[in-house]
Amino acid sequence: MSELTSRFQTGDPQHLERRFAARAVGMQPSEIRSLFAVASRPEIVSLAGGMPNLSALPMGMMADVVHNLISINGAEALQYGSGQGHPKLREQICDVMALEGIRANADDIVVTTGSQQALDLISRIFIDPGDVVLVEAPSYVGALGTFHQYEASVVHVELDANGMVPEALRQAIKSVRAEGRKIKFLYLIPNYQNPSGVLLPADRRTEILEICRKEEIFVVEDNPYGLLGFDRPSPDAMRAEDSENVIYLGSFSKTISPGLRVGWALVPPSLKEKLVIASESSILCPSNFTQLTISNYLADQPWRDQIASFCNLYKVRRDAMLESLTEHFPASATWTKPGGGFYVWVTLPPEIDTKAMMPKAIVAKVAYVPGTAFYADGLGSWAMRLSYCYPTPERIREGVKALGGVIKQEIERRHSGYELKN
Amino acid sequence: MSELTSRFQTGDPQHLERRFAARAVGMQPSEIRSLFAVASRPEIVSLAGGMPNLSALPMGMMADVVHNLISINGAEALQYGSGQGHPKLREQICDVMALEGIRANADDIVVTTGSQQALDLISRIFIDPGDVVLVEAPSYVGALGTFHQYEASVVHVELDANGMVPEALRQAIKSVRAEGRKIKFLYLIPNYQNPSGVLLPADRRTEILEICRKEEIFVVEDNPYGLLGFDRPSPDAMRAEDSENVIYLGSFSKTISPGLRVGWALVPPSLKEKLVIASESSILCPSNFTQLTISNYLADQPWRDQIASFCNLYKVRRDAMLESLTEHFPASATWTKPGGGFYVWVTLPPEIDTKAMMPKAIVAKVAYVPGTAFYADGLGSWAMRLSYCYPTPERIREGVKALGGVIKQEIERRHSGYELKN
Questions:
Q1: What is the pLDDT of residue A8?
Q2: What sign does the CA torsion over B46, B49, B53, B55 have?
């Protein structure tokens, strides 16, 4: 055995790092990963995860859908399919998007392994190392991870209770370009944003679209929660207003099932071919089996009613969370009031570090996601994301109460510590 | 509307190209893509595709497997799962690999969306633009596409009727390194290689492993066909002999169903974490539904007998193809005699251009893949890949007969053309 070989086999980490690509050096476990391992213990009330609540999905019906699919059409469902996605499902996706005002051609849709794969492919097509991607502050942790993997430079744009602030976007574009840097796209979640839960109203959508068209910046509109509005329907999708400059990402993960891993991208025709080629190189083709499961479900089942059932289920949980936040959180905390989706964003006094506070929360049998996970620039230590989608309303109240206690103690401890130091 | 906007909206291609990443410039449709559109017409005998023949798969049984899965375990099957893949399936994958001599730990397996995704993730972790990947000459078109997308420089290594030639590998390593270039890994398909159908014997496996260990080059062993040996079992996998330096890729696409899109990578422990992070960034997690479908199938069904049925089905087709090649192809053609898998590689006189000949073959109602598709360097114009996996034996004979006629005519035409020119 050569000296070099034994050095590798003993696992000298520096030696191994030199064998990787530059982009791999930054592939490190996120803080959320280790957190989820703890939060999944049954005695913990997890307000951390974003798993949809499938208790509203009739499993007998789903079992029949898949049985019939294989019995009648198994030779197609179990075979390789089109790299772009099944033509029939792409037609049906047009009907789903029509609910949010989108008129689309099935030929401009690329079906993906969840909309996460669409994010990956869009990044692959657009991002050279150092390119700038604009995102909301805070933004979806999975998108930040993908942009990071393609070595983008993520620039956050201020978000308030009504979503991204157009004037902040103008300023961000100006200052990034003044530094000579290239902006590849704006990524945003206009409906019940992850992690903030806020909704971007129609007038801001129009204004942001105008800014991006004028500045030649593609808009990547990620919309997993658009059909999960509890109180009123969401405004029309941004893609409904602009078919040339918007790359729209959709998903069945929150309206049917995430275990099927079916999402899609609706893109301007000039991008479609590259997206298909990138997807084929990445996975050859999406699963015919899961695509046709969804296709048959959409064709034969009352899927709009099913979405309404999901909305009712989540609305009750949202109400439980907002009520118990009012009851149990300290007066110095503020939080968003989501009209749909899965998440509430809580802002605490700036001296609180939610990441450092996590072990105490775990001891109190409740978990959340610290705010820093949703920032690429290390901010967010004073905030946390709470999700109400999965636990029962009783468990939500229990968890929020416990967490309120932990926060109050932490504020008190900091306060007394401050007094001592002075 | 600004002048810039209208220039984009009219689709000025040069202007659009400037907005993409550098790697996207090379994302162009392959010659195989347009070919498959033609070859899928029912009147054409397609010897082009690599679709497994699912006529041996009992669909009633598969329908019951998925029905029971959802009825009994729908809440898990339809939910998000682990980024690394389902723990139970990873245990079962160890049993499948044991048939080829591999002793593995389920913790070192990452489940992927087909083994194509494993190729993509391995490329992502290792390849910086310009890095060298060594591959067989010829090699799998889908792997070449992925390496191209990560801007690798692909260097082919001679392959003969017994697979990759170890001495050619030594020379290739030497000459690449003499140019100061960095070799990231050797990619090869030791069993019934795609496209050549050849098998790498045990002694060459050992020799190639020794070379790569000594030279500190990872071996990526892609093994979709290893269990599809018709005449005798395949030699032990290369991974069975070297667990430190081999990255092993497996797939259920050829032994169960490609429509489920379930493959895996078995990697040295030092690579696992980065592979999982890369996969999460790419798709969040593989489908629990398709993973558990395979898991339940493996647990409850006679899957080894099912693989034997597939082998019988393909052996009859392989025999039909080899017999009719002898009967109908010209004496100046040679071809491989695969002991398993899907493919025969035909070498024609060097003046024949199989890509230019394709339209004539289509007129004669037969399709194949031109040899150039399997080379990154433009070679292979004198060769073609014929697959026997999908058509009936009768159709195979019909297709080979028609193709033999086209080739004989082409040789004659070239010959008379040559005489005329002189």
A1: 43
A2: negative
The pair of three-digit structure tokens given for residue A226, joined into one six-digit string? 């658009």
Rounded Cα gap, residues A321 and A312, in angstroms:
14
| B260 at interface of A, judged by CB pairs closer than 8 A | yes
Cα distances from A334 to residues A213, A331, B88, in angstroms, run: 35, 8, 43
Q: What's the average model confidence in pLDDT over A53-77?
A: 96
Give the angle B245-B151-B244 at the CA atoms, nearest 5°.
5
Q: Is A79 on the interface with B (CB under 8 A)?
A: yes
Residues 149-178 in B contacting A (C-alpha not used; CB under 8 Å):
149-150
**Percentage, residues of chain A above pLDDT 70:** 94
**Nearest chain B CA: its distance from A22 CA (Å):** 7
Q: Do A281 and B149 touch (CB under 8 A)?
A: yes
Q: In the predicted model, is pLDDT for residue A151 greater than 90?
A: yes
Confidence of residue B32 (pLDDT cuts 50, 70, 90): low
Give the angle subtended at the CA of A304 by the CAs of A301 and A307, to the nearest 5°: 110
pLDDT band for B33, please (50, 70, 90 cuts).
low
Establish if B59 touches chain A: CB-CB under 8 angstroms.
Answer: yes
Q: Is the pLDDT of residue B164 over 60?
A: yes
Q: Are B46 and B391 in contact (CB under 8 A)?
A: yes
Q: What is the C-alpha to C-alpha distance for residues A68 and A74, in angstroms, rounded to an integer?
A: 9
Q: Cβ B57–A78 below 8 Å, yes or no? A: yes
Note whether A46 contacts B: Cβ–Cβ < 8 A: no
Antiparallel, parallel or unpaired: β B343-347 and B334-335: antiparallel
How many residues are listed for chain B in this entry?
422
Residue numbers in B near A48 (CB within 8 A): none
Q: What is the pLDDT of residues A117-147, one digit of tens each?
A: 999 999 999 999 999 999 999 999 999 999 9
Q: Is the pLDDT reported for residue A366 higher than 80?
A: yes
pTM over 0.90, yes/no:
yes
Name the A residues in 293-312 with CB < 8 Å from any B CB: 293
- What is the pLDDT at residue A372? 96
Residue A256's pLDDT is what? 97
Contact A211, A166 (CB under 8 A): yes
Contacts of B117 in chain A (CB under 8 A): 282-283
Q: Please answer yes or no on whether A260 and B287 come within 8 Å at the CB atom.
A: yes
Domains of chain A (ranges; CATH) run: 28-50+305-416 (3.90.1150.10), 59-300 (3.40.640.10)
C-alpha span between B167 and A258 (Å, rounded): 50
Q: Does A213 touch chain B (CB under 8 A)?
A: yes
Pairing, β A383-387 against β B109-112 = unpaired
Residue A10 has pLDDT above 80, yes or no: no
Distance in angstroms (rounded) separating the CA atoms of residues B186 and B181: 14
Contacts of A21 in chain B (CB under 8 A): 124-128, 131, 150, 184
With an 8 Å Cβ cutoff, is B57 touching chain A?
A: yes
Peptide bond into B138 cis (omega under 30): yes
